[in-house]
Every structure is written in structure tokens, then in C-alpha cells.
Amino acid sequence: MVSLRNLLAAALVLGIYSLVMAALWVVLDAVDVAFTEAAVGAGVTTVFMLLAIAATGRHEKIAHRRPWLPILISLAVGGLLVYGTLDLPAFGDPEAPAQQHVGPHYIEQGEAETGVPNIVTAVLASYRGFDTLGEVTVIFTAGIGVLLMLGIIRRRRHAADDDARDRE
Amino acid sequence: MEALSHVNYWAAIVLAMIGLYAVIAPSNLIKKLIGLGIFQSAIFLIYITAGKVEGGTAPIIDAGHAVYSNPLPHVLILTAIVVAVSTLAVGLALTVAIKRDYGTVEEDEIDEQDRR
Question: Which domains occur in chain B, in start order?
């Protein structure tokens, strides 16, 4: 999808990629994340992408200029990150610090404290409810921003045109 | 097996590198947003694999299972996916607005028009 010049194809490949990631989340035990990825990542994102491409044109005009600098930056960042992973716990390690903190409390006490057997739902709606409130705030702000940029500004401009015409 | 114990992080890093390249190199703004999406999915992969426990199952309490993967990263990434779509929507709206005002979504052409 990075090298495709046809943006429509790139958007569709992004949707397929998202669906593959959803399957990967199921394999990694994150079934709730898989739901969200399939619905929001593969579904809504693709629709947004297609709408935007319909409004802006489906062909990328210019080939990637000076590709060596971006490649060099990516490799440098990647190398640093690989160096950083050497101290991290192994994949699937039950003794990893991430598995020792609040996770066990949620799993052991979650059902008794919230009455929900799905721990992800319990954490989302109860233990970290304020996070979800913040998330809703972000969606609201993004929605207002999109409306401002696409709808209301255009209407104002028309209104200004009308005023100019009235003055004539 | 020891050599492959960090392969999950490295897979995520490769995705992050592709995403970073796709944000910097293309001139087309939509292409950059696609790169941003790839980069974000790399971060999701790091979080979800960090929560995976060997032999664990999905964190839904059930009498038949004793070992569960960590639910906390799942919750954080659930939120992050929705936030990612919100930021993408704002980015695409900006792109459409730029197309309306400049008549192009290629960064080079926008720069050229600004210099005039």
C-alpha cells in the first residue's frame, strides 16, 4: 500500500490489512480488540478513506522524491527500537512485570466486583470508566472538527458571497 | 526458541519502520495518512503481544479456564483504535479542505503555491 500509485487500491489494501490484523488479535486472545478492529478499522476507516479519495482524486501524481533520506531515518529509528527491545521480557512470559501489576486483580476480583464475566468490558466500563469518558470526548471533538472543516465553513463562505451580492 | 522470544517486538518495529517511511516519503497527503495508520497498528501490536500470556485464553471468566491473557492492554488498545479513527477522520477532512483551497493534495504543489 505504500508503493501503490492508485490511491483507491491503497485504501482497499489498508482495509484488507486491517481485517488480517483483526484475525491476529483473535489469535493473541484479544477478541474485543478484534471486534473493534474489524468494525472500526476495516469498516469505518475504509469508508472514510474512500469518501476522501472521491473528493480529492484517485491518483498519486508525484513519485516519492528523495527516497533515501526517509529510508535512512526509518532504518535508524528501527535499529534504535530493536536495541531497546533487548531488555524487554520474552513473548508470552507469565512472569513479565506487565502481568504482575493490576492485571491479576482484574482477573481474580473483576467478576465479583463488577458482575461482568468479560473482564475487558469490566475494565472499560467500570475500573477505567474515565478513560472511556475521555475517548468519547475525543470522538466528539473530532466530529465537531470535521463538521467545521467540511460543512459550516463552506456555508459561511456562501453567506459572505450572498452579502457581497446583496451590497451590489 | 530463545532467539525468537522477542520476535513480536521486531515484527511491530518492522511495521513501524514501513509506517514511518510512508509518512515521510510520499508527497500525497492521503498516502501519508495511510502511513500513519500502519504506524499506529505497529503500536497496537506491541501492546497486545505484551499482554499475551503463554497458554492463556481470552479474558472472559469461565469455569473451564484458569490462565487468562492480561485484559488491560486490550482495553487501552480498544480505546486507541477508536481514537485512531477519530484522528484519521480529522486528517482526511483537512485534506479535503486543502484540496478545496489549493486544488491539489500533493505537498510539493502546495509548497510551490505558498511560495508564490
Answer: 2-115 (1.10.287.3510)
